Amino acid sequence: MNKHIKILILASLSTLWGCSEVAKNSSASKKSEGVIIQPITQKSIDNIAENLIVKYELISNQQKEKCDKNQQGGLCFEAQLSLTAKTKIDVANWKIFYSQIAPLHNFDSDEFVLKHINGDLHTISPSEKFSGFSKGETKVIVFRAGYWSLAESDIMPNYIITSESLTAKVIESTRAEIDQDTGLEIVPYVESYSDYQKHFQRSSADSTPWKSPRDFYKDNSKLGKELLDVSNVIIPTPKSMVIDNASAQLNLAKGLNITFNNVEPSSVHVALARLESFGIKQSKQGIPISLSLFKDKTLVNGHYQLIINEQGINIKGADMSGVFYGLQSLASLVSLDHQLVSYMTVIDEPLYEFRGMLVDTARNFRSKDFIFKLLDQMAAYKLNKLHLHMAEDEAWRLEIPGLPELTDVGSKRCFDLTEQHCLMPQLGAGVDPNSSVNGYYSVADYSEILKAATARHIQVLPSLDMPGHSRAAIKAMEARYNKYSEQEDQEKAEQYLLHDPNDLTKYSSVQFYNDNTINACQESSYAFVEKVMKEVQQIHINAGQPLTRYHIGADETAGAWLESDVCKAFIANNDKGITDMKQIGAYFIERVANMLADMGIETAGWSDGLEHTNKDNMPAVVQANAWDHLPWGAHTKVNELANRNWQVVNSTPDVTYFDFPYEADPKEHGYYWASRKTNTEKVFQFMPENLPVHAEFWLDREDNPYVADDTKQVDEQGNVISTPLEQGRKFFGLQGQLWGENLRLDTMADYKIFPRIIALAERAWHLADWAVPYNYDGFKYSQETEVFTKEMQTQRDKQWTLFANAIGQKEFPKLSLANIFYRLPTVGAVIKEGKLHANTAFPGTAIEYKEKDGKWTLYSQPVSVDGEIQLRTISVDGKRKGRTTILR
């Protein structure tokens, strides 16, 4: 290993490990505060891991006086860690590494030192005043960290105890567990968030209600008391449906006798397999069904016609996907216990060409089986784009031939201070490189995913985020650099190097990394991009789904490169017109976009990165995922990108970020920076064609009204700041997002996606007749305007009632059959005249209740009860229970 590399690694180790006077003395006993501190051994580490009981307690989200004014705008929460020793602990040369999503501001402790390392990684180490633990002794550390903690799921598991040269171990008391009733992951060392003002409110201005069972009951009562007939409901809703004879029906239990005509059987195999899973098999004695293609070439992709009458079933599509969707609509009509379908004529086509779902497999790995199941359900609801996010700061998930370090090092998190064998355990990953949060898709795996997607008429858009969010790639290529440097092959070492080793820039990304941005000034970075893209392109070609569009990410790069000698030289000597460090990010995106165009690949990226580019320097076709927050003026940025004639895919976090909680409750899982509650009804209410109109009936993230001014805006000098959409501009699509920072299990990912994805599919496919058309002249919307009329609201709520009934009665059983771990709704309940009345957001979902010291009992109608009542929903198969709520 050359001297330069040794210095780099030693410096890195020094930063991560640190040193105290106690830590320096690891070979002999030392007296501290009257206690003999013994030399540390592996047995000592094992003892602490097994016998140290950690408890986490949130004190307040409204701590201001002790916050660090130089961090996060001076906003912080206050919490405390209680450390209790079950046995005597008389060693001190150790550190606890732990994950905390918000960076440390400061702490109160004489015996311990807390420190933010990088990203979410922090440490706790004994100070010089550490006096050890006697058996049963508890020591408390009070600390402040950035912003707020409003959900118990913020707190990461798997605190790691270690000492230099010894094997790191997870502290047993901090491991996550699975709740036996709900099947959800819980972190038992976290004390319950129970105080409205201290634990639930962001600030004194936060008006978000903490809903009780009574509140849920009131909301759910709008759905009525009786189950609706959902036999003729198709999800997503067709453009046109005419019931030809309300009393005439075909019985599909006899099976289907299929004539394929000019339809390729393999193109509809998956849809037919789904029907077969519902008990509707292919049979020569079955109902005649004719599949064919229209000769009309002007019809949009996905257009189909479904006719059911006494002669049988006829499905015609504009293309193979149209026929496929016609079969999925037939499947949608069927209930698992009711295989009769009415005579009808359906004429249908999608609202958007792009109907997508993003899955973040980088932060925490998602298994191949999870992806296959998701593809099945996306196809069932006519979604056609899987945005597969496979590279981030925390991991790289796709095998790239010729660059084994990307997966050998970058696909797993364990405990390696040098990060030459794995990445450090961000996001509570623990120390096991074989745990479910780790992994990658081999070329063979990814090829299988592509083939499965193709069979379901779904395009996979790979995403390997650049130049920000790239720490895993940077560290992997650093390991490659070190390997070839040791072999004295400097040319190969530097071939794909992604950082400038001499860069002294100090910056912090949105996720608090200080080393996660690819250096956009060095040619090796572009050589890396080209190598990766050519390999990914070849995998797609070999799998039969050519790579026509790639998502480069392109977001969140602020602050990087400022002290990079490479970048200083680049600015001084380039002929590209780059004169300022702030221009380098746009230069990277423009250059990569044109590299992709030369390869026949279209560029997609996030709006905040793309908006800084020069349109004239970009290819003709650009997809921009717009992810700005509605109360912060999202419509103005979206308008600007659409007015560039780019393909804007609405990815509005207020409603399409499925990592957010379903409801505002600390027990609900998820992040909440843009929305405290995004339930399925809210997704259904979304009008993606008209973003500013939501100011009339939605609130901001603290449940306060906001104003969305979509009129032309100019500054004091007369410069145009923003304008409405140009006449006739339309958006290209709609995409749901599942970011995975705290989703360590596939089941939890299922839980966050379903059933919200069903409403997402509805809005991506069907233009509701109650939706407010966009006003190209501009308008200023608020709670005081009534462009969204009472009549529109009534029509929307009526349609939601039918939609909710269909989910509860038809879709939940189908999801259970497909082994989907969907979220069960929270029970609403009241006591009236001594009787319990209960309901749910999805009529047809079973409810259980329990009186004090009683047994769980199935609820069917109002029943006399006494005292405190516990309530929960039950999955269709009876194996899983919803979150228990208490009615007092």
UniProtKB/TrEMBL annotation:
The enzyme's E.C. designation: 3.2.1.52
The Chitobiase/beta-hexosaminidases N-terminal domain, residue ranges: 50-215
Taxonomic superkingdom: Bacteria
Pfam families (UniProt xref): CHB_HEX, CHB_HEX_C, Glyco_hydro_20, Glyco_hydro_20b
Keywords associated with the record: Glycosidase, Hydrolase
Catalytic activity: Hydrolysis of terminal non-reducing N-acetyl-D-hexosamine residues in N-acetyl-beta-D-hexosaminides
InterPro entries the UniProt entry points to: Beta_hexosaminidase_sua/sub, CBM2/CBM3_carb-bd_dom_sf, CBM2_carb-bd_dom_sf, CHB/HEX_N_dom, CHB_C_dom, GH, Glyco_hydro_20_cat, Hex-like_dom2
Matching PANTHER family: BETA-HEXOSAMINIDASE (PTHR22600), BETA-N-ACETYLHEXOSAMINIDASE (PTHR22600:SF57)
UniProt record similarity statement: Belongs to the glycosyl hydrolase 20 family.
Protein name per Swiss-Prot or TrEMBL: beta-N-acetylhexosaminidase
Organism: Thalassotalea profundi
